[in-house]
Amino acid sequence: MPNPGFRLTPSLAQQYGVPPAGPVVFDSRLSFEQAYGTSTDPQRARDLALMKPHMALVNVLYCGFDNALHFGQIVVNKAIENETKILFVKMFQLGFPIKSVIPQSQFGYDDETSMQANNTSNFRPDRLGSGNLSEHFKGASFDINPFVNPFDVLNDDGSRTIQPAGASYAPRAKGAIVKDSDLRRMWSAEDYEWGGNWGDPQADPPIDFYQVGYFDYQHMQFNQKKMDTVKLSLPDGLA
């Protein structure tokens, strides 16, 4: 609901070109400590402590699915804190709708729950099967409107794995990321790969990863050029 007593800071309002006193729906208004959270799982608690000094909380605005102005927050790597602000301004200028932007800590760092809520996020303390840190763990990749932009992978037996449960990709759905769109081209111009191209051998621009039938429509992560040029803030030994 709009919050009449809440006012945007002049600097944030100026970034987005909106009046500070205008009606705003805030989806998240947390301190960094609240947004980052913790875990009762010992390994995850250690991982969170490991990465905490390297993360930043960014306040963003976006066009909600209800066509109202929304205020949210996202946890990202400190190295892309300012870039994140610019990316959200550009999405706002394109009029791209976003359901919500709430730190994943508020979903218990449970990705399925966050995806079911169609919530846009970045950081979560996930390790890959190899034990290495995921790009989300590094705070360097974004999942956007994940219920309408699901993870959809063709398995060796011909079945498909789709996450979140019950989701399906429809290019004309509100908040869908589409290959031939200004939104996808904007992210590509900022040197991010779109996971929706990962199953497309004719991806434009060319991608660094390709696997038949592998589509992660919600996912934006550094391409190789960006990986080579952006020094993420990471603990010693993980850079």
Automatic annotation (TrEMBL):
<dbReference type="InterPro" id="IPR039561">
    <property type="entry name" value="Peptidase_M15C"/>
</dbReference>
<dbReference type="Pfam" id="PF13539">
    <property type="entry name" value="Peptidase_M15_4"/>
</dbReference>
<feature type="domain" description="Peptidase M15C">
    <location>
        <begin position="129"/>
        <end position="200"/>
    </location>
</feature>
<dbReference type="InterPro" id="IPR009045">
    <property type="entry name" value="Zn_M74/Hedgehog-like"/>
</dbReference>
<protein>
    <submittedName>
        <fullName>Poly-gamma-glutamate synthesis protein (Capsule biosynthesis protein)</fullName>
    </submittedName>
</protein>
